[in-house]
Design goal:
mainly beta; five-stranded antiparallel β-sheet; globular
């Protein structure tokens, strides 16, 4: 074994652990089982970005940051949320004490297992740039929750702060009259990012030059109003955000004059089968929006996974999605008083799609909305912060085989003893449960969901905070929390490199 080979192996493993994104597998034809070809290690560094929460002086925003207890990547570590300001851009590069003097952290975690919280009032809150390393990096999760009592978009608006990337799909956006959708683009890096925005309506791509080559300066955030990108109103839109240079975090804040509003997160990557978990049992209206980004049309079987099994919604058993065109269908009160999830599968030839649901609760003047994007399974572990003693509901769906998961409620931000409970989710069904609560809870707490056995399970959490008869709520999906990453085993890598 030569020294350069050893160095290459070490470099690949270190890169994977630090970024949290690298995945190494054995080459095809190597004869080794893929499960044995890579080991999972805790990430050593991760980053999250939180968009500007509000421009309203009447808004109240809370932030909750949490790192689950588990296998730690190091003895030391820190996790901080810093405001995206010019001072941060001008701060000395490389971090350290000089950076701390230049910009004071808005929120800092001290140890895994206990959430930390912070609050902001009014419309002056900036976007937040967060990094976590060492023992605080694996699974670090941040939730921002804003409550609007009055005005357009009034209600509860929640968002999981997300990692930067270069490609995002947002089915379910809109430029219709009475609705204001802003896409927030946040750049965490030291150089400017250049971003393109494409819009697709029911008849295909919309012509827009305004959405090309949008400059997002270092350590800053740019809001873009969708209705300014195209003069023609579109009730249902799919938006594609790509960074031609640099990387950004992207999220859509939707406000409706009559129906409230919430954050629309990006859909999972295009796939031939998608799962949209956690339609509330008292939903009064559900709209499905889907888009086929590939060259082929998609013919999809639409199924509602209810507590008792999967059924086809009356009159909507199938959905045809033309390539490059946005399709939308109103499913009304599809859940009929029972928790449910939507599962879309190809009827014949598979074609990739992205999808999202707009969910409405309440009636008349007391309506409120939230969004459920297509989401991946919980993976190794999923985490969601800002759960409360009352109003947190967990939805678990097994689209294929029966799956068993363990749900752990952390200690509270101000005290409380963690507790765990195991749930079995039958294949083709949705299980809606009140989230377990730590004993002696004070403050807010976090939930982690981990697979125990069986098939894949997808999950979401609904947070309720009703006010004046309005069923204010927000829904966050629970994909893998990126706490671990696949890295090559040295022995396997040596075999490959020596061939």
């Amino acid at each position: 074994m030569n020294r350069s080979t050893q160095s290459l192996i070490a470099a690949v493993a270190a890169l994977a652990a630090v970024t949290g994104f690298a995945v190494a597998n054995a080459p095809e034809g190597s004869g080794d089982d893929g499960a044995k070809a890579a080991a999972r290690l805790p990430v050593e560094r991760t980053s999250l970005l939180c968009p500007v929460p509000s421009s309203s002086d009447l808004a109240e925003t809370s932030y909750t940051a949490f790192t689950p207890k588990g296998e730690e990547s190091g003895e030391a570590g820190k996790a901080e949320l810093l405001p995206a300001t010019k001072e941060l851009t001008d701060a000395p590069k490389g971090g350290g004490k000089d950076t701390k003097k230049a910009v004071k952290p808005f929120l800092a975690s001290k140890a895994p297992g206990r959430p930390v919280t912070g609050e902001e009032s009014g419309g002056s809150s900036p976007a937040l740039l967060g990094t976590a390393d060492g023992k605080l990096a694996p699974g670090w999760t941040v939730q921002q929750t804003t409550k609007y009592s009055v005005g357009s978009g009034r209600g509860l608006q929640g968002a999981n702060c997300t990692a930067p990337d270069t490609d995002f799909w947002f089915p379910g956006a809109s430029s219709a009259k009475g609705r204001s959708d802003y896409v927030h683009l946040t750049n965490p890096d030291d150089s400017a990012a250049v971003v393109d925005i494409e819009l697709y309506g029911k008849d295909g791509a919309l012509k827009t030059e305004v959405g090309e080559a949008i400059q997002v300066q270092p350590h800053s955030s740019v809001p873009v109003l969708l209705s300014t990108l195209s003069p023609k109103e579109q009730t249902n839109l799919t938006m594609h955000v790509t960074a031609r240079s640099g990387r950004v975090a992207a999220a859509v804040q939707s406000s409706d004059d009559k129906l409230g509003g919430d954050w629309l997160p990006a859909s999972a990557d295009p796939a031939s089968r998608v799962v949209l978990p956690g339609i509330p049992k008292d939903a009064t209206s559900v709209r499905l929006v889907a888009f086929a980004p590939g060259a082929d049309d998609a013919d999809l079987k639409v199924q509602l996974a209810s507590p008792n099994g999967s059924i086809s919604p009356a009159g909507h058993a199938n959905l045809h999605v033309k390539s490059g065109m946005t399709s939308a269908v109103d499913l009304d009160d599809v859940t009929k008083g029972e928790a449910g999830s939507l599962i879309l599968t190809p009827t014949e030839d598979a074609a990739p799609v992205v999808a999202a649901l707009r969910v409405t609760r309440g009636k008349g003047a007391d309506q409120e909305t939230a969004f459920i994007p297509a989401t991946k399974a919980i993976g190794t572990r999923a985490t969601v912060a800002d759960n409360r003693a009352k109003g947190s509901t967990l939805s678990l769906v097994a689209p294929g085989k029966t799956g068993k998961v363990r749900v752990t409620a952390s200690e509270g931000s101000e005290g409380g003893t963690p507790t765990s409970k195991t749930y079995t989710v039958k294949g083709g069904t949705t299980l809606g449960v009140k989230a377990p609560v730590p004993s002696g809870l004070k403050g807010t707490y976090a939930l982690t969901v981990e697979p125990v056995s069986g098939g894949d399970v997808h999950a979401s959490r609904m947070l309720e905070d009703p006010e004046d008869g309005i069923p204010m709520f927000t829904i966050q999906t629970l994909p893998d929390d990126r706490g671990t990453v696949s890295v090559p085993q040295a022995e396997q890598d040596l075999k490959v490199l020596q061939k």
